[in-house]
Amino acid sequence: MSREMEMLHDSEVVLVSEVGCTPGRLVAEFLDAEYTVRISYFDKVVEATSWNLFEALADVRSSLEREGLTPAVEGACRDVYPSRMALEMGGGRKAYRWPLADRPVTVGIFDAVPDFEYGRLAYVGEQRDFVRGLRNKGHE
């Protein structure tokens, strides 16, 4: 018996680079116990599958980094990272945004980042380093 892929997210996405912005499409799907994230732009498609959406998005972002592109979504911001519980119970759809002064707020990882906040976008390694620094300061 074959199962159908469940569509979780389908939206336009902006891919940001040093030279400008490129329109694309972001799709997230679920089948069995795996999540797939796909970003298509021009005639290219970048796709990754993982046990949660955040890791699948991080894998797609790593591939896009080689082209100098970052998707303008909350899950690609240096100050956004999911808790272990969000990964295990929610599939990584939601994450915490860690402002420097206040308490963290929950955001959807595929929520669009407005152009005036593109400075928050980061490569995968930069994002992990930032969150590691927060955890070392006592945030969890």
Textual characterization of the structure:
The protein is of the alpha+beta class. The protein has one domain (6-136). The protein has helices at residues 53-65, 84-90, 124-136; strands at 6-17, 20-31, 34-41, 44-50, 70-71, 80-81, 94-97, 105-108. The chain has a five-stranded antiparallel beta sheet with strand order 4-3-2-1-5, with helices on one face. The chain is globular. 31% of the residues are buried.
Protein topology:
Layout: E1 6-17, E2 20-31, E3 34-41, E4 44-50, H1 53-65, E5 70-71, E6 80-81, H2 84-90, E7 94-97, E8 105-108, H3 124-136
Antiparallel strand pairs: 1-2, 1-5, 2-3, 3-4, 6-7, 7-8
Q: Which features would summarize this protein structure in a list?
A:
24% helix; 140 residues; globular; 5-stranded antiparallel sheet; alpha+beta; 3-stranded antiparallel sheet
Rg on CA atoms, Å? 15 Å
- Mean of residue pLDDT values: 93
In DSSP terms (H or I, runs of 4 or more residues), the helix count works out at 3
Helix content: 10-25%
Unreliable spans are none
Query: How many distinct folded domains?
Result: 1
% residues in beta strands: 35-45%
Q: How many beta strands in the DSSP annotation?
A: 8
Taking the alpha carbons of the first and last residues, their distance comes to 43 Å
Tell the overall outline: globular
- SSE string, helix = H, strand = E? EEEEHEEHEEH
Task: Characterize the main sheet.
Answer: 5 strands, antiparallel
The side-by-side strand order for the widest beta sheet comes to 4-3-2-1-5
Alpha-beta content class: alpha+beta
